[in-house]
Amino acid sequence: MRSTFTIAPGLVVTLMLLCGSALALSFNGNDKTVIDTLAWTSDLSEIYSIIERSQIANSTIHLRSVTVFAPHNEAFMKTTKQDTDDDYLPCYHITNVPMKLEQLGKSVFSELDGNPPMWITKKSPEEIYINQAKVVYHLANYEHNNTIGKPQVLHVIDQVLQPLRLKKNSPQMIYNPNAWEFMENAEFLDLNGYHTNIFLQRVQSLEKKHVFSNQGGHTFFIPVDEVANHPKVRPEKIDVKVIDAHIIPDNVLFLGPTNEGEQFETLAFTDMLKVVAFFSKAEEGDKTKYFVSSDTLNSDGTHPTGAVVAEIVKANIPIKNGVVHLISRPLMVVDNNVKEFVESYKDREYGILHRFYEEIMNTDKDFLDQLSSLTNVTLFAPSNNAFNEQSIQSYLTNRTYIKSLLNLHVVNGRLSIEDIVSGSTDKRFQVATLVPRKDLFFNVVTSGKNRTLTLEGGGVNATVVQANLAATNGIIHIIDHVLGIPSSTVDRKLATDPTLNDTNYLGQVSSLNDQLSDVQKRFTYFVPRDSAWKRLSIDNPSVYKKLFMPEYSYLARQILERHLIVADKAYTMDDLRKEANNNYNLSVKLPTVRDVSMYVKIKDLPEEGYSIEWRNEWIHVHRADVRCTNGIIHVIDQVFIDDNDIEVNAAIATKSVTVMLLILAQCLVFFYFN
Known about the structure:
- Helix 19 (501-509) crosses helix 22 (553-561).
- The protein is elongated and about 100 Å long.
- It is an alpha+beta fold.
- The strands form five sheets. Strands 10-9-15-14-13-12-11 form a seven-stranded mixed beta sheet. The chain has a seven-stranded mixed beta sheet with strand order 17-16-22-21-20-19-18. A seven-stranded mixed beta sheet has the order 24-23-29-28-27-26-25.
């Protein structure tokens, strides 16, 4: 109970500010009761005021043993005030057992009517969440008896706990419902105007009530009837397996403590059918939106593989047997083709593919019809952020150029992440696009349970940010760059391409790369890929070893300069082929930095692509025309090198040393005898 002596009001304010600011940082040295600590800590004034106004909460904290989870004032500032706050918030932040953090189990019962639980997530001893709110660890575990000797504990948290609320003036009282009772009584609950009747009817007709009534702690995703600008799903597509995919058993997953992208098995994870779910988020305008995805890893013949994404329209609703997230559409149901999937972003201004849809409409409306005509198609769709990249804005005004690039994002065939991973086991995976001779090259990086998929198309590297989005006639992967529009200089391309590490290293140690960032020049660079250097290490290990020794970096530079042309324009392989044709298919002169008169032949075979003949040996061009902002790279399968390069240089070096030694000897003789 608070002290009753009288002091000047101005002094009270001053003391509260001084004491409060100190206590907001630490409770060390504090010897007040929990209620007095709340009263005298300015950063906790909001929760104190709410408890003080509640007769039940105020009496409880003065008369009983309790644990108080106290949001700081900043948490209240981030929360929209509601008319019913005083009815729900005070008692939902109190439990009638004093518990330190290490004593908390999976849940504790609140003092709100019906004793709805607060769910506990322990990510580590120092990272603990109460529902969505994180415990401020250095302001937790404050213990003190109240004025009648009852032990109490205080933990400060960073968000206001939000219990399930009834609609104002609801004729029906609902106390601590489970997931089934939640759906059955949704019309009486304050759900921001959302309704769940369609999903409820399917659960009833398919007799799946029991999976929503199970005791314990689970996560439930409940689709709402309708969300503006989101595609509708035919109710009959929601079968028993689809319903099971909306439940993650034995895990109570609030958004805050759950890792983005971490996969959890749903009830639809069985011997024949394997469906997982995971969370993600995206910035859309000035808002952060949250999503849940179901990913069907193994099909049972009825439900196709691939992911289905739903926006979480109302999150983190605590209930008796877990947590409910209201979502914009049913999971697992694939009801749109690729064209319809893209079109669904038409009126969603900040939706992740809205800019892609707009660019298609402004450039080539027939492109979407082409997508719907293909029975199995994979679309790599650039995100809004990809189109907002500053370096590509000048290209976007060229509609003819953009039209030519759209098909670079399409593969005729269904290509899931699993297909790419299996194809990349012992080599870099490569597939053809709808643009002749323009392939996509894939690279998969695995770190623990996380996999990152990168691809290159038209010289641009992109990362898949959302994968395996399912459609009735294919699959969609959302990527973070527009393919075919260069955004990197030659040196940056070398540094970021995982297959060009060796050439990049030699260029760095020999300082050749220093010039490759110059945007005033135009470079044509025949770049040996890593496997070309590996081949050299097998064919001529001594030469390979010497080139990669820092003291011989000058030799490496000379070799690389043979691969580099600096001119007023960059040359595509087609440019070189045409020049060869003009020369009656004879040799083409390449004015490289090292060899001003280096002659090669070019051949172009429909199945194999381009090859270059250098010193009577044909070298395959693995990737032609990798465009950069200041030049073009051609990735080749062999290094332009022969034994004489190293031997001649070594001989010159040896001869130089010999001459120096002779001169030194003559000097010594001269000084000795004179």
